[in-house]
Amino acid sequence: MTPPWGMNQCSINNCQHETQAITYPVYKVVHISALKQNGLLQSLSATPSDFKESDISEEVLRVREEWDNIASIHPGGIVEKPLGPIPLISFNEALQYFQTADLSDCRKKIRPTIQRRGLAAMAHFLFGPPRLQQQLQSERDLALAIAQCGLDNNEKVHMRILQTVYKKLTGSRFDCARYGAHWEDLGFQGMDPSTDLRGAGLLGLMQTLYFVMDSRILPVAREIFKLSHHEVQNFPFCVMSINITRIVIQVLREERLSRIGSLCQKKPKAAAKTHGDIHERKLCSRRG
């Protein structure tokens, strides 16, 4: 009989020979209990009744300790695991931190006022806003220095500010992850809020912190946040807030807050008040 597909008897014999030539390794069946002689497997397979800490080798204990102390690694850097719930922080406490922190590198980058020349300088001198009082210039420089600070994952105060803004706006009692889609729900453009702080730095978060920690305007902040999720009037709340901070920084450098600063005697709070006023006007314009 002729083999199918044009195969001859020789090729069939060759295939059978090759098949018989294939050898497979022989595995010895070992009961799992026999593997418990290994120190690592013994520590992993031990039940609560027969488990003893002394049975674990020093190497296993060392590896366990390293694993427990390992930090979470994200695209933005290393984030240390918090030991407990992150407490809220008030605006005054955060401000005191920046007043005592070393911001020398940030202060080198600031431009306190806009440099005018020629007729523009003359017109500003004759008809421009009043000059900022000498005792308030340090407050102005502090606000501009904070605007040059980036978000540091290893700085506890920075993380407390971020968590406070999240909890106050959402009403949550629990900490949220440093990275995640929940920040988009808050009005950031991505899963990492620090990427939206360019141009405003931590001053952007400080303005929002003042907005949510003042009991008098917190209802307004939450109402605006609720409006940001409206089907028609929706907008990114935190991004808009940071953009308003950029406007406040520009107005501050143009010396248009000098009169408000003289009345408030606190330049950062004057800027924060202006930030809140702009938010309220935005809310009224959208309602109208």
Automatic annotation (TrEMBL):
InterPro entries (alphabetical): ELMO_dom (IPR006816), ELMO_domain-containing (IPR050868)
Superkingdom to which the source organism belongs: Eukaryota
Residues in ELMO domain copies: 157-288
Protein name: ELMO domain-containing protein 3 isoform X5
Native source organism of the sequence: Notechis scutatus (mainland tiger snake)
Gene that specifies this protein: ELMOD3
